[in-house]
């Protein structure tokens, strides 16, 4: 069974929107695009590279696919991620796209949850969900996320899309590994562990 792994950059207050650049995603008037690089370091880069080693595919929503497909095919070939991102299999969940131009991209058909269940049962390595906040919410609601790999950066953004938005299904998490880089970024890997339990002091 393949694992579905949500890989996301987060601010300390949980914002995931437009970490990579000012023009990445200005939806809803977001003015803080590009917040991740100034609070990152080489340890974060090494951790992210490690996240891709056991994976041979990405699962993307339409907005993230559009952003990636506009950037990676012409990205600097000296960037170690360029060849990896272009060569990986991409599965795309979209209600509006009818064709995909980026190499090795496949449009999921029918119900997204059913299509992802079929992917999980197919042969292959792990599948990383990158960005794609709306898609991640859908996967969470259908209990399809096997692991979260998060970098939590020391910056507060205040507004923007959040991975764990209002209405997220309450879930207990088991920490697999947690470390802090020299820049103060928390690199955490967590697995869902059923429903939360509650108690009082």
UniProtKB/TrEMBL annotation:
<feature type="domain" description="Bacterial bifunctional deaminase-reductase C-terminal">
    <location>
        <begin position="2"/>
        <end position="187"/>
    </location>
</feature>
<dbReference type="InterPro" id="IPR050765">
    <property type="entry name" value="Riboflavin_Biosynth_HTPR"/>
</dbReference>
<protein>
    <submittedName>
        <fullName>Dihydrofolate reductase family protein</fullName>
    </submittedName>
</protein>
<dbReference type="InterPro" id="IPR002734">
    <property type="entry name" value="RibDG_C"/>
</dbReference>
<dbReference type="InterPro" id="IPR024072">
    <property type="entry name" value="DHFR-like_dom_sf"/>
</dbReference>
<dbReference type="Pfam" id="PF01872">
    <property type="entry name" value="RibD_C"/>
</dbReference>
């Amino acid at each position: 069974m393949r694992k579905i792994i949500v890989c996301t950059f987060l601010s300390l207050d949980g914002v995931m929107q437009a970490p990579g650049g000012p023009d990445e995603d200005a939806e809803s008037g977001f003015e803080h695009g590009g917040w991740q690089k100034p609070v990152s370091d080489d340890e974060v880069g090494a951790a992210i590279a490690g996240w891709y080693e056991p994976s041979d595919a990405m699962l993307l929503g339409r907005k993230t696919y559009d952003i990636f497909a506009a950037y990676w095919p012409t990205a600097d070939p000296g960037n170690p991620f360029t060849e990896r991102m272009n060569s990986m299999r991409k599965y795309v969940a979209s209600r509006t796209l009818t064709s995909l131009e980026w190499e090795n991209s496949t449009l999921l058909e029918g119900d997204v949850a059913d299509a992802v269940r079929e992917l999980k049962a197919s042969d292959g390595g792990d599948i990383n969900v990158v960005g794609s906040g709306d898609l991640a919410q859908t996967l969470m609601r259908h209990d399809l996320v096997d692991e979260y790999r998060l970098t939590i950066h020391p910056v507060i953004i205040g507004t923007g899309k959040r991975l764990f938005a209002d209405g997220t299904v309450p879930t207990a998490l088991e920490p697999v590994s947690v470390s802090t880089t020299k820049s103060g970024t928390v690199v955490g890997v967590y697995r869902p562990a059923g429903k939360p339990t509650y108690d009082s002091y």
